[in-house]
Specification:
This protein is mainly alpha-helical. Helix content is 64%, strand content 8%. The chain has one helix at 28-76, and strands spanning 2-4, 10-12. It has a two-stranded antiparallel sheet with strand order 1-2.
Length: 77
């Protein structure tokens, strides 16, 4: 179920036991907008997770390269 809170935020609820108070019956346009807002938030979260994973992998590669360079530098002394 997709609901809009009083502060204007949209949320997808999977817990149907959570009490919901309606102020008015939603129009089709409101339902479409709310659902698209939720989908947009999900996509943004997925992209953020992908970016974080890529940054962690890149950081690990850079740390490994720095360690290898440090070993090379020590061997050249």
């Amino acid at each position: 179920m997709v609901v809009q809170h009083q502060n204007g935020e949209w949320e997808a609820l999977s817990d149907f036991t959570k009490p919901v108070t309606t102020e008015h019956a939603a129009t089709v346009i409101e339902m479409k907008f709310g659902a698209s807002e939720v989908v947009s938030d999900i996509e943004a979260s997925k992209q953020a997770a992908i970016t974080a994973h890529q940054l962690m992998a890149m950081t690990a590669q850079m740390q490994q390269a720095a360690q290898h360079q440090s070993i090379r530098d020590k061997l050249q002394l």
